[in-house]
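Why do we bother with holo predictions? Because pocket geometry can differ from the apo form. Keep that in mind while you read this record for coproporphyrinogen III.
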Amino acid sequence: MIGRHYTHHVEESESVFFPRDPRPILILPEWSRLSTICPSLPNAEPDDHLKFDSLALASLKCRPMMNDRFLKACRCEPVDCTPVWFMRQAGRYMSEYRALRVKHSILEMCKTPELAAQVTLQPIDRFPLDAAIIFADILLPLEPMGISLEFAQGEGPVIHNPVRDRAAVERLKVVDGGELEYVAEAIRQARKALNGRVPLIGFAGAPFTLASYAIEGGGSRNYLHTKQMMYGDPTAWHALMDKFSRVITSYLKRQIKAGAQAIQLFDSWVGCLSAGDYAEYVKPHVQGIFEGLKHEGVPLIHFGTGTTAILRQMREAGGDVIGIDWRVHLDEAWAMVGHDRAVQGNMDPLVLFAPLHEIERRVEDILRRAGGRAGHIFNLGHGILPTTPIDHVAATIDMVHKLSQR
Ligand code: CP3
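The structure, written out:
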């Protein structure tokens, strides 16, 4: 597959590779991983692009990223301005999303690759965001494992057969993610439709957060049943976490193979645990997932909320980028995580409801705390809310870009 060493002149490469593309092909050698430009090469070594000749590259039919500041920031490389995207950026605060939702259920949208790809691009078409995230849900892998899932109107997710004991854990199937081929296909279609405009993020739920839904049967306030299993039957608990970890690892590998250029692991509810319980019941499993993915060649983002007490442990568990929620100052969080890792965050999603001058004050504060250091990705501390004013979203993205210009 790998041809002669890359020795062509700029003009020659341009004419063979991207005839109408004004940007010089010389930017190629700066990219550290081929997989970020070509989804069919997820396992390329960092220097492989230097070994391709232009004919080989042309035959791959892939475009370079037009905007790679998100990927650069993930790797702590310098950028022209701070990249920004929002968790749940494809959602009900957008009229174009609501228009589709009138006709389709959330599960239908997730399981129809054309619709999932279309929704993925809605925020990208409207705002100058620096990354897209594939439209899917963290709960999708539960279905092929044998858990029946429904998104009830106005109630959020409902699980009809919650996993409450050892026998239920034993019944769960360890699937390899092939049953979720519709997500892989949505990724392929979204990559095609994006055509290199911005990178595409894939994702999965982390084992604790998935277990909390599977055990409670839906969202929860106190995680009573979850902690009951954890403390009362640690063997069943670890067996459950192990099953989720194996499913998540192969599912994420499939997403990367399909073209996901970064991966985010959502441990949204892990902040309900003490530092000691995190170390004992969760960390080894999350560590296993990051170990399993670290040679896949794409940046890995490790996100949770309420995590101030466990940020160091999250760093140890893994991830090139650590997600920070809004409860902690970004500079203090980054010091805990360590400046050799990138961080993502951390504006309170509710600040988007404030007057623009107040939003600007908050954006400025976060950027000041990031201190112009390489490796900051601006995001909210958690997902964007359905009633968020859309003009405030647009204004915030502009503020981040303008106020962070290097
Ligand atoms: O970020 C994106 O734009 C990609 C899409 C995405 C969805 N869910 C679509 C969705 C992502 C990344 C998720 C992750 C997810 N799903 C998480 C982790 C992130 C977080 O917010 O903590 C969790 C905990 C879930 C589980 C889940 N799915 C809940 C609790 C709900 C109901 C909440 C609500 O707002 O109604 C969902 C449904 C869901 N998943 C919606 C969307 C856009 C809303 C469904 C609708 O349109 O009615």
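The longest strand covers residues 200-205.
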